[in-house]
Each structure stands twice: as C-alpha cells, then as structure tokens.
Amino acid sequence: MKSMVTVKEALDLILSSVHTFDPVETLLQDANGRTLSEDIFSPHDIPGYPQSSMDGYAFAFEEGRNQYQIVGEVAAGSDQFFILEAGKAVRIFTGAAVPQGADTVLMQEKASVENEILIFSDGAIKRGDNLRAVGSEILKGSKALAKGDILNPARIGFLAGIGIDRVRCYRRPKVSILVTGNELQEIGQPLTYGQVYDSNSWTLRACLEIIGISQITRIKSADDISQLSTSLNEAMENSDLILMTGGVSVGDYDYTLRIFEACGVTQHLHKIKQKPGKPLLFGTKNKKAVFGLPGNPASVLTCFYEYVLPTIGKMMNQDISLKRQTVPIADEHVKVAGLTHFLKGVYDGQVVKLQKGQESYKLSSFSTANCLVVLPEDATRINKGDLVEIHLIP
Ligand code: AMP
Ligand code: MG
Q1: According to the model, what pLDDT value does residue 358 have?
Q2: In which element (H, E) is residue 107 found?
Q3: N or C: fewer beta carbons within 10 Å in the chain?
C-alpha cells in the first residue's frame, strides 16, 4: 500500500485499480446519461413515406399553373393510398403522407379555395417545397449514433424516432454509503450533548443523484469493530462502490483501516499530500471499490469531487470529472509547502475569489462556492493576479 502520495499519483493509483463495467443491454427508458458501447444503425428510412411539413395542399407541381382541382383529403396517420393525377390537389396536414404523383405542398396561408378549386398567386413556390423526402432524416442502415456517445435527451428522442427500444451501454454503479461515528444523530431527531447530525450521507447522496445514480443504500454504524465489519461486508455484497466516512485518522476510535483488513479489502492507498482530505483510504475487493473518506464534511465533498467522481466515470466509461480551467486569482494567499490545497472559491467569469472559512468541518463556505481552487503542493505564496487551476462544481 502507498502512503502520502501526491494528488496525481493518488488519482492514477485509484483509476488503475478500478474496472469499467461490462456493457449491458438496456431499455431506452433507462439509458439516459449512459455511454453507448456500440454504433447504432437505423432500422428504417425516416421518414418512411414522403411527408408533408405543412398544413396545406399537395399536388404535382407544373410550371405556370396556379389552379388545381381539390379531390380529397389526407390527415396525419391516414393509411389511405392516393395516386394523384396532374392538375389535381389534396387537402393535406402536417405529418401526413403526400400522395403518389404529388411532389409539392402549398402552405394553407398562401392558398385560397373557391368551389373546390385551389388558387394561388405566390410565384415563389418551387417543386419539392414543404415535402420531407423518404429517408431525409436518416436512411435505413446508416449510422445514427456512435460507440462512445453519451445519451442525452436529443439522442434518446432520436433513437425513439427511428424505432430503437434498447441499446447496449455501460450501467451506473450501485453505491453504499456507510457513515461511522458514535456521535452521529439522524436529522429530525433532537441533538443531545456531544452529538452531531450526520450530514455526510446527505451530501454524498445528493452528489450521486446529480449523476443519475439511484441505487443508493445508506448504512450507519457505531465505532464498533464488529458492527463496522458486518456493515462493510453487507455493503460489499450489495454494491459496486462503497463510500465510508469517518474513522480514517489516527484517533483511538478510528477503525476503518482495521475494518478493511478484517473484511479482506486490498488497500491501495492511505493518505494523500493534500488538504483537506489527507487521510483518504482506498481499497478494492473483487472489483468492488471501497473509499474510506475522512469524517469532516468539507473533506468528504472535496474527496468526492476529486477522486470518487473520476472513479464512477471510469466504471461508466465516461469522463464526469470536474471541468478544469486556469484563471487569475483575486486574492493573495500564503501556505506552507508540502500539501496541495483545495480551497473553496467563487469564479465570476473573470477572477476567482477565495471564500472565508476554509476549515474542513465547515460546509457553509462550500455551499456558496462554485469551484475548488487548486494550489500546488510546492507553492508557498500566491499573489493577486497569479494564474491558478480551478475545478468547476456543477
Ligand atoms: P473522524 O474522522 O471519524 O474522527 O471524524 C472527523 C470529524 O468529522 C468529526 O468532527 C466527526 O464528528 C465528523 N463527522 C464524522 N462523520 C460525520 C458525518 N457523517 N456527518 C457529519 N460529520 C461527521
Ligand atoms: Mg469518527
């Protein structure tokens, strides 16, 4: 197991021990946000028939003619099959099949009708106007979406429109959140002396929900070796990813390291040269990833954004890490060398300002931040106007 590694080494180490899931066939209704594992080809010409794009009149266009005899009507969804003779027109509606023989649709706003005769004066009309040709959206057999594409509302709708009801893609992980600590109280209950409300499980649940993860189990355990072991084993049975919080430091009741051993979790990493989040512990067992996150709420969230999010991304074959940007800083800042600092900041599109209250027990400054400001391990002094890396919080 590695200890006191750099931020970059830690992320590399974690990602190299995490597996991408095998792709699975997924119903379209469950596929939003997932990455396709295969190209998708259209099973149909779309549209499958020549389609009117307007409410109006369809006919075979003849140069110079501006009167046509109306002989019928075709509504959207009608399956009647017409063959239209020269000089004849049909009343037609958006989405309806343009009769065979017709090649042009005149929009009704430009038409006048007298005694079943369509009359128009608009010389701007051309052959083919307002008609969607067969296969003009996509031809049967041509590629609709590519392997690696991430499904979004437009792509889901596009697939539905060509009649695809299932796709092969990468699933999302099932996650267990295991919060530890004798001091933890449930929200909604009175807080007695020495207790704190569990906030970590709420923060983590919210983080997971934002990326579409819904299979989330929450377990709370006291600082008790046997209860902790039972809880971690249960979590590993039910989940792909286990997020423990608390108990990774050096206190007498910090049992997480021992619990990893007891449950047969291979430890890859303990402690990173960073602040907050230094005590992070990471291990795996049978392709399950287990994070021993710190207990302090701001450390938990920082570690989620910096390490857990990329881990979930690797499982889902998708880059969901926070977006990075290099921007000037508005304040000067002094730090000691040796640790990378992740500070809560507000980026206004021009400069980033550091928030007050950077201590790891505080979420108040996180709750008004829109980015993490990354100050390098070896930096000691940051001057106003220096360029710094920020990670944007979605
Ligand atoms: P620990 O690493 O277990 O010593 O916890 C560090 C700090 O985080 C302590 O102040 C804990 O009370 C606090 N803490 C631990 N777990 C939680 C939690 N689930 N929600 C809020 N605070 C917590
Ligand atoms: Mg604790």
Answers
A1: 97
A2: strand 104-107
A3: C
Beta bridge partners of 56: 92, 107
How far is the centre of ligand 1, averaged over its atoms, from the C-alpha of 276 (Å)?
Answer: 13
The closest residue, in CA terms, to atom 15 on ligand 1 is 295
Residue 123 in this model has a pLDDT that exceeds 80: no
Residue 46 has pLDDT above 90, yes or no: yes
Query: From ligand 1's centre to the CA of 262, what distance in Å?
Result: 22
Contact 256, 232 (CB under 8 A): no
Transcribe 215-263 into DSSP letters.
Answer: -EEEEEE-S-HHHHHHHHHHHHHH-SEEEEES--SSSTT--HHHHHHHT
Residue 177: pLDDT band by 50, 70, 90 thresholds?
very high
pLDDT band at 32 (very low <50, low <70, confident <90, very high): very high
Between vectors from CA 231 to CA 226 and to CA 232, what angle results, nearest 5°?
A: 100
Specify whether the CB–CB gap between 87 and 39 falls below 8 A.
Answer: no
Distance from residue 296's CA to the centre of ligand 1 (Å): 5
The DSSP secondary-structure symbol of 28 reads: G
